[in-house]
Amino acid sequence: MKIGIDKIGFYTPHLYVDMNELAVARNVEPAKFTIGIGQEQMSVAPITQDAVTLAANAALEILDENDKEKIDLVIFGTESGIDHSKSAAVYVHHLLGINPQARSIELKQACYGATAAIQMAKGHIALNPESKVLVLGSDIARYGLNTSGESTQGAGAVAIVISAEPKIMALEDQSAFLTADIMDFWRPTYSDQAYVDGKFSNEQYIAFFSKVWEAYKEKTGHSIEDFEAICYHLPYTKMGLKALRTILDEGSEADKERLLANYEISKTYNKNVGNIYTGALYLSLLSLLEQKEDLKEGSRIGLFSYGSGAVGEFFTGILQPDFKAHLNVESHSNLFASRKEVSVGKYEEIFQESLPVDGSRIELDIDKDPATICLSGMADHMRLYVNKER
């Protein structure tokens, strides 16, 4: 029985800031952002969007009534959770009207959370082949204004339906994974902004990739020539390229050209959204699937997931017959085309907006937000969500 990705959707807020404009405002040479880290635009989340609404909007476009009935497990990977106790998955479950006879949980391990969710989903489907699992990776990356990490912020979510006999990608059984207790990136419970040791984190990302890549080859006997493409977790798009370059000498010139060309395609969405933590790897995969016109069924795609702190995993999938017919290329093209650029000043204003922390009531203007699902306010310490279609 094949198990894997049956559907995949994506959502990002309708606002963005141009990285050239941000660089000028920060007295930085624009090429440092556009070439040095490989980012062109950065999605900006208005106060009416949080990790819950982003995930719900991402799932909204891919779920039909049959999916909602078959889904009996919702797993939400995030490091932008909105409650220490209540799972973000429960909110999404309600907002989308999913089958009540379902488990709904939240997972956390930095940017690795959605990958952990997918691996759990595979086990669930193996035991329950008639069911489906909704996996969500949703985050808003925040480092603060005028900080070293500001240029690697972003906001968005990826939603994935895992099932038996998937229409898009069958996930192969063997993978390689690694855990080590390190402090390269973290966010204490008292802070709404992350802390990062940038140089150390970059080093650990490469080290983890090297270790799981070698372990994967030893487990499977596969080599670089067996891959049509390798997608990476992309906190910024230059990071994945650094990792890919460490293994290119293992293959032929044709292997090198193929993997580099496909990497360029796989970063298309990420360079215009920014870092979305748990969803970043899967946004890269989605970019490859939707933007590479001659990608063929039967191709093996490598996936490297990394979550600071740290957990890493290398796993693979095989593209299924007629997979292109089950993607939402036009919808995602329209999503990008409809976004609105904001000035750096406006971005700073949005960044500093916050919800009350004393339990007081607030009503938010959701008419300015074109998203179907929005955060409409707070009352009695509870967030209030609205699905405009219900």
TrEMBL record:
Any one GO biological process: acetyl-CoA metabolic process
Coiled-coil boundaries: none
Keywords: Transferase
Binding site for (3S)-3-hydroxy-3-methylglutaryl-CoA: 143, 242, 275
Domain Hydroxymethylglutaryl-coenzyme A synthase C-terminal positions: 180-258, 264-352
CDD domains assigned to the protein according to its UniProt record, in alphabetical order: init_cond_enzymes
Pfam families registered for this protein in UniProt: HMG_CoA_synt_C (PF08540), HMG_CoA_synt_N (PF01154)
Transmembrane stretches, start-end: none
Domain named Hydroxymethylglutaryl-coenzyme A synthase N-terminal: residues: 2-164
One Gene Ontology term of the molecular function aspect: hydroxymethylglutaryl-CoA synthase activity
Active site (record annotation): 79 (proton donor/acceptor), 111 (acyl-thioester intermediate), 233 (proton donor/acceptor)
InterPro entries for this protein: HMG_CoA_synt_C_dom, HMG_CoA_synth_N, HMG_CoA_synthase_prok, Thiolase-like
Family: Belongs to the thiolase-like superfamily. HMG-CoA synthase family.
Identification of the protein by name: Hydroxymethylglutaryl-CoA synthase
